[in-house]
């Protein structure tokens, strides 16, 4: 009865998971937008236009490299000490790094120190984000009943499209400035706004508590001594398959929200405000699809729904580029909207699926590392490869085929995951004991 009286309400769980994750992804995505629009010329002016864009995307990718490390370190303490403390830490790390980026001097002011500091802060930002998603999913799913696990897991998933929406709104608000003003101080405003958002997120998350499921493990001293080592030793197959299963969503997502900004403005002559608006509008479709996919996942199973999403991710890249290449804003909007549906299907199922495949002792580490490895392969590399492929071929077809191939890896991997296997195994062990 004591547990029930102190258990957080569904509203408070939703708020802590959704609001905090939205803030963290806002922080993360404004970097991608800035990398596509201004970082090349401000921090790498000694390079050509294409090389500067590649360098900016390379700095963007550095954050992904830090994410698996952050997932391992933060996941370690999340599995040993608790989910709540780590969620507060990730918020402060990411938000602090983001605000400092908004204060950075450019290459014209301090030379090579500017890009070096940018890379350092991006590493810190990526490290913090590395432990965010896993903790946000678990703080929700570990409070949920088995019949509502996907819906609760989707709370954190709303943060991704909302982060895209708010980051694009922030840049859309300053994108109409004269070019000189935008490059001088306008781009800094979205980064500096992070300070206000972090304060809000901190207040919300400081009121959280860990779920009884984890507290029982902690109180009985059954937590893993070295979660990552146990994960690799006892669950290597699940870790590899979950990592591969995590590739398609960021591959599709970052093709749209990062690469398309550069490709659309420099190659196809779209206005940057047009593309930002279209991407922003697509997030509404993204959120709605997450809701629908989560409900269907709780009814029919998370894995079948995720398979459908991965299959659409294989099919959609070629039509998506064909629509964008027409130069029509309406058709580009359609392309982005369908891409949002593709991502939303997988996002709605992912939280519920991943919380079922790892045991509670290593769950924070397992889902965090898998998610971030998939993000690194699908998200960090894709804008760089896309830029290089177009530079070498002058065609978007190789880019579309590359994204489709990444999505095929995800589709094949999902078939190998065993939904509910970890919880079934744990229940059996408790019965034997």
UniProtKB/TrEMBL annotation:
Organism the protein comes from: Actinomycetospora flava
Domain Major facilitator superfamily (MFS) profile: 13-422
Name of this chain's protein: MFS transporter
Domain of life: Bacteria
UniProt keyword annotations, A-Z: Cell membrane, Membrane, Transmembrane, Transmembrane helix, Transport
PROSITE patterns: MFS (PS50850), SUGAR_TRANSPORT_2 (PS00217)
Subcellular location: Cell membrane
Alphabetical list of InterPro entries matching this protein: MFS, MFS_dom, MFS_trans_sf, Sugar_transporter_CS
